[in-house]
Structure formats: structure tokens, C-alpha cells
Specification:
The chain has 582 residues and is an alpha+beta fold. Helix content is 32%, strand content 25%. The strands form three sheets. The chain has an eight-stranded antiparallel sheet with strand order 8-9-10-20-16-15-12-13. Strands 1, 6, 11, 14, 17, 18 and 19 form a seven-stranded antiparallel sheet that branches. Strands 5-4-3-2-7 form a five-stranded mixed sheet, with no helix packed on it.
């Protein structure tokens, strides 16, 4: 007798696979916070991780423009002597000297573009406050923007620091050095596409460094350039570095807030692999990386540093309680006497807009965290984005993409639907077998299998489309949850945010009705007890989906309605064909 699988076993197998895949993905991407971690604690470490300054290795070699990469100094050359502190520079509106500055209290320059409102500290040129003007913190408070970087309090500490590390005891413009500038405020004017903020530092012995931050209209990328002029009699060595300092309090996860499951913490791309680090587990990172990037992630937003793709940078991660310091330091270079040199890095502070992330670095879009099923989620978002560019409404785009997916799987669904229609036609004969062999399970199963074989019906054929939809559904879940493009996006009437739950629970109610209709038009498999369980599934699913993003429920409702129409059409055509044969 051939081996067979009962419909009941198949359904349990399907449910088990779905639960296992879901659990595995959540466990891998969003590990649980250890019980010992002080969740929600507002106590910052006593000694900040950025209190020390990086140092560069011994220099040597030659670079274009008189700069020399890491190695040994040219024969006969000596490092510059340590200068005495410079006096106040009256030619500038703010004080300039080579002393270490206190970042929280140092003066700052206010920079405003059409999308960013930034405070740049003269202590190292630190980005110590960044507000995202196009992204309200809450839908009902459009006047309060998301504040991504901040020194407002110890438990909201999140800053981006950059500098040039010295060799030995040389002076260098580190993230603690005080810069000077004539500017107090820069604003992007109508018709203006770019703002440049030059910050100047000097060691008092002929070495002058100009650090320029470049802001562009509509962009969250910030250019970082150094121009080094060595007018001294000795070579001057340095190593560029950039770092992100953050107090990373764990997010308390809640089923009622799907966004609380989004990853928050440090992440890197090493040129081939994307890695996320759980700060509470005190991860260790000390690695030379070329063509990568480093970032601090949270739901919808990111602060990232992208070093030059052709230079090997040393990536390091330090943790102290809930605080972390993620740093990348470049190779040591030397500027010969009378020569100059330049360096460039890219910064990104803002929403995870994938087109802008791609423009910075080809793999920076990985910060839009689509989980294990990224291979499916990425083309889904690409399609969704292109449809939205045509229709201008993300809800309508979701409906259209769902219809396109239905067309893609139509041949498979057609075969499955025909099998289910045949199963429905066999229902009276199956019920007769159940009545005849109600006390003999073995004979009942044998009789059912013989009937299926004789009528050339596969009772499991209807499960295949559902199996295919599971990874598509999960991928769409991540797309709708982690695509900032859908954040606070309105649909129609009462649904003014597709990334949040339906406030009136209308879509979940429609979903329950649609699933019940779908249940009624499909064949009733299993015994009466199983059928009663299947009858309450629409209600159970709608309750489960009630707190999911409205965009995801909209996808499932659309998919269910299309499935009903498709199955109704198949049933109608099969009944017509059966009547014609009679």
C-alpha cells in the first residue's frame, strides 16, 4: 500500500513549519535581552567611552600631494615638536586654539537645510544634535520632529564624532580639539543647493587643518573633508577616524507594537557580510575592513559612517553597560614639509530611504533590515516603490502589487483550485465513507485514499500555494514594518498611517469576513471536529492581525478577496464542464 499523508497531518505540518520559520527568524535577528541587563535604566557610565583619543601608528611611504601612508618616516625627518597652546584668535568670531574642549559646553554652529536642523560643536566638529524636519515624532504632532542625534540627557546620548588621530604626543585635531569658524549659523536659502561649513584648527607651528562639512538640499548624506597644509619644517602625521557614541537602552518589546521588535544597536558591513551586535552581550570587534561601513540602527532611522572604499580601516566596538562606541580608524599618513593632503569620508544621519542609502554606498541599504528573507523582500520593495511612484498612494500600491503577485502565482493557484473544487465535488462521497467507517479509522483512511486515487485528486494540492505565500507574507511583513517610506503614510479615510494598526479595526473585521467566505467556498476537509476548528480560524486570524500594521492587513485582505474570486471562477467553470458532459 502506498504511503499517504492525511489532511490533518498535512495541516499540522504546515502550521509547524510556519511557526518554526517565524521563531527562527525572530530569534536570529532579534535576540532576547538577558535578564541581568538593566532594561530601561537611565544610569549612564561614569566615564564616557570617548574620553580617550585614538593614536596613529608609525608612518612611512608616499601618497600623492606630499602625503605619506603608514610605515616609517623618511630618512632625516623628525616629527613636529609639541606646540604650546595657541592664544585666542581675534580674526575669528569664536575662540580657536589647540586645547582639549568639553564637547557638551563648547560653542556650536547652527546649520539648517530643508531636511536637517543640526548643531555642530566646535569641539571636534561633533554632530551633537540632529533633528529630521520632514519626520514628525508623532502623526498628531507635526511640529515636533524626530531628534536622532542628541546630548539632551545621559540616557539619550547619541552623537557622531570625527577627527585626525596623532602619532605619539603630536597635537592633532581630534574629536576633543577646539576648532574655529566665522560662522554662527548657516541656512539653506531658496535656490541654494549646498551649504559648506569650514572649521579650522592649527597646531601653532605651521600645520593647519580645515575640516569641511557639506550639506546638500534634500540629502541626509553629509560630506566630511579634511584639507591639511603643512607649512612647518618637519613632517606631520595623522590617521583619520570617525566614531559613533550612543547610550543604547534596550527597547521593551510588545506584541501591540510590532516596531518594538526592530533591531536597535551597532552594525557593520565588512565588504561581504552584514553584522549586527547585541550591546548587552558585550560583543568584541577589532577588524581591518576595506569597502565597508559602520552604523547605529534603530527603527526607521540610522547614523552611519562610510570610509573611502579603497582604504583599509580598523573597525572597533567598545561597550560599557548600555553605552557603546563604534569606531573606524584609517591608515596613518604623513604630510611632508611644505606639502598638503586631503581625506574624505561620508556620513549619513537620517531615515532609511533606500535610494539615498544606495547613493552613499551600494550596500548601505542593508540597514533597512528585512531579515532572513531579504532576497524576497528587496524585489518586493522595489516593485512596491515603483508602483507608488505611478499612483502616489502606498495603500493603492500595496493592492496593485498584491494583484501582480496573484497573477504571478496564478498557474499554480489554478491547479490547486481545480484540485480543491474536485475535493468539494467529492464531499458527499467522503461524508458517506465517514458514516460507513466511523468506528474503523484504518478502513476509513484506506477508503478515502482509494477514492482520491480513482478520481485523480490530490488532497494536499491546496496546501502548496499557502506554503509559497508564507515566505512572501513574512517578507512583506518586514518590508511594511522596516521601510521608512511607509512611515505615517496615509491610505484612505480613517487609515492615516499604514505602518500602524488600523485605529478602528475595520480591516481586521473585513479580513475575518473574507476568510470565512473563503472557508465556505472551499471543500470541507477533515472530520466535523476539525471543520469546527477551521470555522473559528478567521476570527482567530483577525484578532492576531488586529495589531499588525494596517498595510500588512490590507495586503492579506486583498489577497483573500482575490483568492475568493479566483476559486469562485474555478468552481463555476468546473460545474459548467460537468453539466456539459451530462
Amino acid at each position: 500500500m502506498p504511503t499517504t499523508i492525511s489532511p490533518r497531518l498535512a495541516l499540522w505540518m504546515l502550521l509547524g513549519i510556519a511557526l518554526f520559520l517565524n521563531y527562527q527568524m525572530w530569534s536570529h535577528d532579534y535576540p532576547e535581552v538577558p535578564a541581568a541587563a538593566s532594561v530601561g535604566s537611565s544610569t549612564a557610565p561614569a566615564t564616557p567611552l570617548d574620553s580617550t583619543v585614538p593614536t596613529a601608528t608609525a608612518p612611512g611611504g608616499t601618497l600623492p600631494g606630499g602625503a605619506v601612508p603608514g610605515g616609517t618616516l623618511p630618512a632625516g625627518s623628525q616629527p613636529a615638536a609639541a606646540p604650546a597652546p595657541a592664544a585666542a584668535d581675534s580674526a575669528h568670531g569664536l575662540v580657536a586654539h589647540a586645547l582639549v574642549a568639553d564637547s557638551p559646553t563648547a560653542p556650536s554652529v547652527h546649520v539648517v537645510t530643508d531636511v536637517l536642523d543640526v548643531d555642530v560643536s566646535l569641539a571636534g566638529g561633533e554632530l551633537r544634535r540632529v533633528d529630521l524636519l520632514a519626520y514628525p515624532l508623532a502623526k498628531d504632532r507635526p511640529d515636533i520632529p524626530v531628534r536622532l542625534l542628541s546630548r539632551d540627557s545621559a540616557d539619550s546620548l547619541f552623537v557622531l564624532q570625527t577627527g585626525l588621530a596623532p602619532v605619539n604626543d603630536e597635537f592633532a585635531p581630534t574629536h576633543q580639539a577646539l576648532y574655529s569658524t566665522d560662522a554662527r549659523e548657516l541656512r539653506l536659502l531658496p535656490g541654494q543647493n549646498e551649504l559648506k561649513l569650514p572649521l579650522t584648527w592649527s597646531d601653532g607651528h605651521g600645520v593647519t587643518v580645515t575640516k569641511t562639512l557639506t550639506f546638500r538640499r534634500g540629502q541626509y548624506q553629509i560630506g566630511l573633508d579634511y584639507q591639511i597644509q603643512n607649512a612647518s619644517a618637519a613632517p606631520w602625521s595623522f590617521a583619520p577616524y570617525a566614531q559613533i557614541l550612543r547610550y543604547n537602552a534596550p527597547v521593551e518589546r510588545s506584541y501591540f507594537r510590532p516596531d518594538s521588535y526592530a533591531f536597535k544597536g551597532p552594525a557593520i558591513y565588512d565588504g561581504t557580510k552584514y553584522q549586527k551586535f547585541d550591546v548587552q552581550k558585550s560583543p568584541v570587534l577589532d577588524q581591518s575592513i576595506k569597502g565597508g561601513w559602520l552604523a547605529a540602527l534603530q527603527h526607521d532611522f540610522v547614523a552611519a559612517i562610510v570610509p573611502p572604499a579603497d582604504a583599509a580601516y580598523r573597525y572597533q566596538l567598545q561597550t560599557q553597560g548600555n553605552e557603546f562606541l563604534l569606531k573606524a580608524q584609517g591608515p596613518t599618513a604623513v604630510v611632508a614639509p611644505g606639502a598638503s593632503a586631503t581625506t574624505h569620508e561620508a556620513l549619513f544621519v537620517g531615515p532609511k530611504i533606500q535610494t539615498q542609502l544606495d547613493a552613499v554606498q551600494s550596500h548601505l541599504d542593508l540597514v533597512a533590515d528585512y531579515g532572513t528573507l531579504r532576497i524576497i523582500a528587496t524585489p518586493l520593495f522595489w516593485l512596491l516603490d515603483h508602483v507608488h511612484s505611478l499612483v502616489g498612494n502606498w495603500g493603492i500600491a500595496i493592492i496593485i502589487v498584491t494583484m501582480l503577485l496573484k497573477l504571478l502565482f496564478y498557474p499554480l493557484a489554478e491547479a490547486s483550485g481545480r484540485s480543491m473544487a474536485k475535493m468539494k465535488a467529492l464531499a458527499p462521497r467522503l461524508n458517506a465513507l465517514r458514516e460507513t467507517y466511523k468506528d474503523d479509522r484504518e478502513k476509513l483512511n484506506r477508503g478515502m485514499m482509494e477514492l482520491y486515487k480513482r478520481e485523480k485528486v490530490n488532497p494536499l494540492a491546496g496546501c502548496l500555494p499557502m506554503l509559497i505565500q508564507i515566505p512572501v507574507f513574512l517578507a512583506f511583513y518586514w518590508v511594511l514594518r522596516d521601510s521608512v517610506e511607509l512611515r505615517q503614510a496615509p491610505f484612505i479615510l480613517w487609515i492615516n498611517d499604514l505602518s500602524a494598526k488600523d485605529p478602528l479595526f475595520v480591516l481586521p473585521a473585513i479580513m475575518a469576513v473574507a476568510m470565512f467566505i473563503q472557508y465556505k467556498i472551499n471543500p470541507q476537509v477533515g472530520d466535523p471536529a476539525q471543520q469546527k476548528i477551521f470555522m473559528i480560524m478567521p476570527l482567530a486570524m483577525s484578532v492576531t492581525f488586529a495589531f499588525f500594521p494596517a498595510g500588512l492587513v490590507l495586503y492579506w485582505v486583498t489577497n483573500t478577496v482575490l483568492s475568493i474570486l479566483q476559486q469562485w471562477n474555478i468552481n463555476r467553470r468546473l460545474e459548467a464542464a460537468t453539466s456539459a458532459r451530462r
